[in-house]
From TrEMBL:
Name assigned to this protein: Nucleotidase
EC number(s) reported in the record: 3.1.3.-
Protein keywords: Hydrolase
Top-level EC class as recorded in UniProt: hydrolase
Domain of life: Bacteria
InterPro entries tied to this protein: 5'(3')-deoxyribonucleotidase (IPR010708), 5_3-deoxyribonucleotidase-like (IPR052419), HAD-like_sf (IPR036412), HAD_sf (IPR023214), Nucleotidase_putative (IPR009206)
Pfam short name (any one): NT5C
Family: Belongs to the 5'(3')-deoxyribonucleotidase family.
Alphabetical list of SUPFAM superfamilies matching this protein: HAD-like
């Protein structure tokens, strides 16, 4: 049975520390991923949110262009693409669609659809595409998608998403671990 996989991009397909070098360089810091305990990065750089937003708007295209792939993401996604539809749903701004597609091409990543929604609320788009499972790194997104759609959500474990999760949100530490869970889940779906 062909399934529809919803997949976040940043911090999920890309490494969750992709922004760290930019923060360190521009703000004179020496952060690692372990220092990022909150999704709101303005806390780390100790500047007003408005000023951080201006910095982010300037850096956003460069961060996305240089974001490294998460380990095993390409291998697993290429495997799944043969049997399932891959819908990437990201909070990135729509004006970055061309740059995002270029990044996918450069990294030889498969996709059926890339939807840049300019919001962290991905429930509407998950409903629109009738997704069967979702892959995410943002805690509240993962919980909301699971609770509103009753689908499993794979949550990639990071220091910034450590709040508790309901049973249908499954924490994994890697794409290899996600692959193992999904393989078992697919067996049950096809039984």
């Amino acid at each position: 049975m062909r399934m529809k996989f919803g997949i976040d991009i940043d911090g999920t397909v890309t490494r969750p520390d992709a922004i760290v070098p930019f923060l360190n360089e521009d703000f004179g810091l020496s952060l690692t991923l372990d220092d990022i305990y909150d999704y709101d990065l303005s806390i780390l750089v100790d500047i007003p949110k408005e000023q951080f937003s201006e910095w982010w708007l300037e850096k956003e295209p460069l961060v996305y262009e240089r974001s490294p792939l998460a380990k095993d993401a390409k291998r697993v996604l290429k495997k799944w693409e043969k049997h399932h539809d891959l819908y990437y749903i990201s909070a990135r701004s729509i004006h970055l669609l061309e740059k995002t597609q270029e990044w996918f091409t450069k990294n030889d990543l498969p996709f059926h659809k890339i939807e840049l929604v300019d919001t962290h609320d991905k429930v509407i788009f998950s409903k629109k595409y009738e997704l069967d499972i979702f892959f995410e790194d943002k805690h509240d997104n993962a919980v909301r998608i699971h609770e509103q759609l009753s689908i499993p959500v794979i949550l990639f474990n990071t220091p910034y998403n450590q709040d508790s999760v309901p049973k249908g949100v499954i924490r994994v530490n890697s794409w290899a671990e996600a692959e193992g869970w999904v393989d078992k889940w697919l067996e049950k779906q096809n039984a």
